[in-house]
Amino acid sequence: MSNHASKARVAGRLVARWLPAAKQSGQAAAKQWVPGARQSGLFIKHVLPAALKPIHSLWHEVLGFIFLALAAVVGWGLWRRPGRLEPMQFILVVVFIAVMAGYGISSILKSRRISRS
């Protein structure tokens, strides 16, 4: 028991001796960390937009493809069976094809503008 108590006393003395120095070095490290955090914030602010730009462009390309594919499928169906629709249905289908094709083309053009900027 006395061996254990003497070890505890020695450890207590070491802690008392080294604790103030440890606190000071910890505070100094915290002060040095703040500029590092600021630098990493600037890094993220500059790198993140450059990393998201290709993803944004790809998103518009995929949407453009989907819109053009929808217009093509409906247009192909209209081309294969032109006489099966009533005049009002025919007008609605033509408007649908025009809107989908317009969205598809504008989305692809927007992706080109994004990738060039």
Largest sheet: none
- Terminus-to-terminus distance: 76 Å
Number of strands: 0
- Helix coverage percent of residues? over 70%
Number of domains: 1
Our Rg estimate from Cα atoms comes to: 34 Å
What structural category do the secondary elements indicate? mainly alpha
Strand content: under 5%
**Cα shape:** rod-shaped
Low-confidence stretches: none
Order of helices and strands: HH
Average of per-residue pLDDT values: 83
Structural overview:
The structure is a single chain. The chain is mainly α and 117 residues long. It has one domain (2-116). The chain is 93% helix and 0% strand. It is built from 2 helices and no strands. It has helices at residues 2-80, 87-116. The mean pLDDT is 83.
Short description, anyone?
With 117 residues, the protein is mostly helical. It has helices at 2-80, 87-116.
Keywords:
2 helices, about 120 residues, mainly alpha, rod-shaped
How is this fold's topology laid out?
Blueprint: H1 2-80, H2 87-116
